[in-house]
Design brief:
This protein is of the alpha/beta class and 312 residues long. The protein has twelve helices and ten strands. The strands form two sheets. Strands 6-5-4-7-8-10-9 form a seven-stranded mixed β-sheet, sandwiched between helices. A three-stranded mixed β-sheet has the order 1-2-3, covered by helices on one side. Strand 4, helix 5 and strand 5 form a beta-alpha-beta unit. The longest helix has 14 residues.
Amino acid sequence: MASTDCDKVVFMGVLRGTHLVYRWAEMKGIDFYYIDRPYWGESRKPPYWMRCTKNQHVKTFVDNITFDDRFKQTFKNIIADELHNKEYISTHQDRFIFITNIVNRYFSNISGNINILDFGSHTGVLGVIFQYYGYNIRSIDLDLVIEDNIQTYKQNDLKIDRLHQDWKKLPYEDDHFDLVIFSEVLEHLYESPIQILKELYRILKPEGALILTTPNVMKLENKIKYFFHINIYQDIERYCYNPRFSLHFREYTEKDLKVLLTQFLDFKNLKFYYFDYVGGRTLLRRIIQRFIYIISYILFKLRGSILVIAKK
């Protein structure tokens, strides 16, 4: 379809594929109208009423959805099979999808060059995804972590920076990034997180945002572990023999994160989301997690992970 074929696009009651037409219309500057009945938490009981939105795809603007299943195939298309650390990527794919949906939604009405830093980039997967979506993404992690996943970084021509174990300051100017992603890092810090978070605050532009994800210490899985006298942290063998940066030293509640980001630091306008992903290291644990998610789907504050968006 060429941009000269029409000056308006109207979709009515069509869900699958709508986002592709929406993105096309957005790119061409063509008005996009979406008409449908309510869904996702709004009443669908008769009598039905219709709504029409202009220049937005409603499905991508719903807050309380963990992730959109339709993106899974896109995720698999973006993330080639030959990427390093494939098992980890597969296990954490729902987390990557959730973060991607949040970021795309956050910048949905913003055009131009958007600078993103993936702090603690690990496998480089988020760098691959956001590069695919056209963001100016940089990845940064400890030198040995980057080296362990260097195949992914080189194969996808990602912009990377390396940190030494005893780093003090990030190699970026003040007010440089529109967004910093700090995903599954906080719980691995065995010292106070204040200095790192201060650095992330420094390099954010005014009104820039931090997206932080971390395990929810109040999740249902932990409550069940306590009941059966099982430690919520890693087993003793991993704790004794694994590298320090790979271990969990503290997990957080929503209240903890509010105090940390707004009282100890100067972030504002915090918005919290809860989500689940199957991250168990054994098949049995993954099966148990899937069963638990049936309950946490309703009691959302018992979900496994917290995502918070905090503005500078």
